[in-house]
Prior knowledge:
The protein is α/β, with parallel strands linked by helices. 47% of the residues lie in helices and 15% in strands. The protein is built from nine helices and eight strands.
Amino acid sequence: MNVIFLGPPGAGKGTQAQRVSAALGIPQISTGDILRRAIADKTKTGLEAKSYIDAGQLVPDSVVIAIVEERLTMPDCANGYILDGFPRTVPQAEALAKLQSIDSVINLDVPDAHLVNRLSGRRVCIKCGATYHVSMLKDGADPCVACNDKLVQRDDDKEETVRSRLAVYHAQTAPLVAFYEKEGILHTIDGAQSMDTIYDAILKTLGVKP
Ligand code: AP5
């Protein structure tokens, strides 16, 4: 099953993709995570991507398409995958269509007003990447429940950068809703509901029993 998770920054793509990936036994492919790892490793791609990510802008299509093209050839993708954060522009969607056929696009719909709060309160484990919101934590110094490592705020989750990311989403990524609607594979889910309700709705949409 080849699935895309679409939605604005903070819609819950990563949160849900992690859970659905574990339930279906297929990999979650997050271009954001791949790019952040490249930045941490100071690779050529990472050095190129950093200034775009810090400014809340999209990394050039050619860079991201090459990353995904290579990732989809790996053996763990043989039975399907969840693309989290890709495609993000019409040229990326067109490039993907030439590589693989997609079964479903899950579009998490959340009003902008919720997103700034979600992102400015997000904390991420530096080791395993698990995501939390400050409202879930007892105090600011809580460790990761999964691996006991430190939780940090992503640099691009500062309020000013979040607003740039939302503007970029509306200008460059939102047109993909119409793109996939036309293909007849778009499923929009209200992403402002509880995490469990959204998870159940995604499994139902994908025809998977909880
Ligand atoms: P990326 O890492 O993909 O960031 P994003 O799309 O902006 O998405 P986020 O990770 O911010 O949000 P999410 O939807 O995964 O939400 P999450 O589950 O974490 O990309 C970062 C950057 O990399 C981009 O800006 C760009 O520069 C570059 N990039 C990446 N892909 C690219 C591409 N294809 N092309 C070009 N450039 C690319 O949840 C957010 C918070 O909300 C958490 O705290 C969570 O606990 C909370 N939450 C989740 N669900 C709920 C709920 N239902 N109710 C309440 N709170 C919730």
